[in-house]
Write a structure and sequence with these properties.
Number of strands: 9
Structural class: alpha/beta
CATH superfamily of the largest domain: Vaccinia Virus protein VP39
CATH class of the largest domain: Alpha Beta
Helix content: 25-40%
CATH topology of the largest domain: Rossmann fold
CATH architecture of the largest domain: 3-Layer(aba) Sandwich
Largest sheet: 7 strands, mixed
Radius of gyration: 21 Å
Number of helices: 12
Strand content: 15-25%
Number of domains: 2
């Protein structure tokens, strides 16, 4: 299938045969399962998936590409959904499949974070995801506390399960070649809210507050959110956190301890 690319849609099509097979293999055994593919493009990864999965749901925004996919693949193996993935109903797809679908995708660089948030929101109906994204974003997603890349995106993703980087591809693996390297990660959905003892709605909101200004201390970010200084100092001490600490230095477990300490302290709630 050959047609011009549309840069505004972030179209960089993977043509490295070995990489395509590695992505398909990384999703694991899907013989009896449905795989949701985000941005299938010309269908290179789709082709590799149909021999491994019971069924593939290909979510493609580009009308021309969606039409090409319908002509390329039999409907009993591939359902093409012409839609923005941010509007796609993962819960309905999971209910129809009778299980927790896996997700595969070459994420457009300009909406990678919103897609990750969308997948996190749908963790209860999804099993795992193998996703390709800009290398620098993958570094942030998989970063450990205290590292240069650790931040809000790291915590936001890792709250919903372990994320690991699998491999990195050069620009030449794509057509047209992007200006950046791309990395493939695997994300296993296993939310930690219950284990951490935090609220699934309010804790992520607190995390966004904690990381609001990267150069500010955690205390300053919390004060900017309207929490009283004495409440913050008490909670930091109770959680064993240095008063001058920044959120980037704290593990998810430590952030959860701080949230619980603030939540139990009289005064404004996080």
């Amino acid at each position: 299938m050959s047609m011009p690319t549309k840069p505004k849609l972030g179209q960089n099509f993977l043509h490295d045969v070995q990489a395509i097979q590695r992505i398909a293999a990384a999703i694991g055994d899907c013989t009896d399962a449905t795989v949701i593919e985000i941005g299938p493009g010309r269908g290179a990864v789709t082709q590799a998936l149909i021999s491994r999965a019971h069924h593939v749901i290909a979510v493609e925004l580009d009308a021309e590409l969606a039409d090409g996919l319908r002509k390329e693949f039999p409907p009993d193996k591939v359902t093409v959904v012409e839609q923005d993935v941010l509007q796609f109903d993962f819960a309905a797809a999971a209910a129809q499949s009778g299980g927790r679908p896996a997700v595969v995708g070459n994420l457009p660089y300009y909406i990678t974070s919103p897609i990750l948030h969308r997948l996190g929101e749908n963790h209860a109906v999804l099993g795992r995801a193998v996703l390709m994204m800009q290398r620098e974003v993958a570094d942030r997603v998989c970063a450990a506390p205290g590292s240069r890349d650790y931040g809000l995106l790291s915590v936001t993703v890792q709250m919903y399960g372990e994320a690991e980087k699998l491999f990195t591809l050069p620009p030449g693996a794509f057509s047209p070649p992007p200006k950046v390297h791309s990395s493939v990660i695997r994300w296993r959905f296993a939310p930690r809210f219950q284990t951490l003892g935090v609220d699934e709605t309010r804790f992520p909101e607190f995390v966004r507050t904690a990381f609001a200004q990267k150069r500010k201390t955690l205390g300053n970010n919390l004060r900017a959110a309207g929490i009283a200084p004495e409440t913050i100092a008490h909670a930091l001490t109770a959680a064993g956190i240095d008063l001058q600490a920044r959120a980037e230095a704290l593990s998810i477990e430590t952030l959860a301890a701080l949230w619980k300490s603030l939540d139990q302290t009289a005064g404004p709630k996080p």
